[in-house]
What we know:
Blueprint lengths: L8 H18 E6 L10 E5 L6 H11 L4 E6 L8 H7 L3 E3 L7 H13 L2 E4 L19 H9 L2 E8 L1 H4 L13 E7 L15 H23 L14
Parallel strand pairs: 1-7, 2-5, 2-6, 3-4, 3-5
Antiparallel strand pairs: 6-7
Helix pairs in contact: 4-5, 5-7
Pfam families: Acyltransferase (PF01553)
Keywords: Acyltransferase, Transferase
Protein name: 1-acyl-sn-glycerol-3-phosphate acyltransferase
Amino acid sequence: MSRPTRPSRFWETLAVVIVKPLSWLLVKKDWRRGERIPRTGGVIIAANHLSWTDPVLLSHFLFNHGRWPVILAKSALFRIPFLGRAVTALLAIPVDRGSREAGRSLSASAQRLRDGAAILFYPEGTCTRDPGLWPMVGKTGAARLALESGAQVIPVAHWGAQELLPYGAKKPRLFPRKTFHVSVGPPVDLSKYAGKPPQGDVLREATADIMAAITEQLAELRGEKAPEIPYDPGGR
């Protein structure tokens, strides 16, 4: 059974009325290559994760470039009064991290892709712990979803959200006004994995390709050279 790829007019309007003015007020915009975001069809938007604020700021960017972002959100949010109703109405997908139910989020994402949605996916699974705030080694969910569905993966890097609200901080740093930089890369070429079972080394290598594409965009935004070996929080 297919699901809509956008919320009802009421919930979409409510979100836009709240998010867009707040986003314009909080940060200046340096948005690059937004034309690379496909306007139709199921697509995986794979991004780095720096701050609790970047899902909102990236959602503004994607909305302004023609796509409603379907976000994977912690399942605990769905149990909070009103907020749970809101994130459900805004088409977010619940994620039960570290549980046996975690696979359900991938199944739900696959269905949304078949319906033609744009899934905003953070392959790292959490805000980066890299000391230099570069993307970490990614988890394999986005690669599995891409290889099993055939959907394009569009790498998106951003920089600046961490200056507004550093990871773990409770209060935003509003002044001076920060700049939210975004750069969109070309679709990640995963063709060499076609016909191969999406498991083991195939998933790890495809994930590394996705993370490398995100990192390449981030290095351009920052004007710096990225580490040759991404940070691995698991110490592998």
